[in-house]
Amino acid sequence: MTGAAQVSDVSGAATEHGLFHEAGTALARGLAAVILWLDPEKIYLYLPPALADDNPHIAGKSYLDAVNEELRHVFSIGEKIAAGEETPREILPKTQRELEELGARAAASTVLRKLILEVESIKR
Known about the structure:
This protein is mostly helical. It folds into two domains: 2-93, no CATH class; 95-124. It has helices at 2-38, 59-75, 78-82, 96-123. The protein is globular and about 55 Å long. The N and C termini lie far apart (75 Å).
């Protein structure tokens, strides 16, 4: 009976890792679109600590791995990364409170930007 429970746990962990991998791939595709459209100098990606963890025993690792894998694929930079030329990234996990504050700031800046664009279009 214990063996069956262990197999179930392994299967569940594999499923979790698969779900996080799929979510990371989706995020990377969205990031790739933003990069291709806007060509930003830098992108800040704020993640909860569980998703920013490099521990291979945590499903969040699958998330980051999928993001990196998909971005390498989209931008064909696999050879550069293999040669150690990967773009440096700094992972700074945020608490739930910090994420909420950052989200509120992002929403406020989006509204302000939209207001500025509206005012500029009225002036013309």
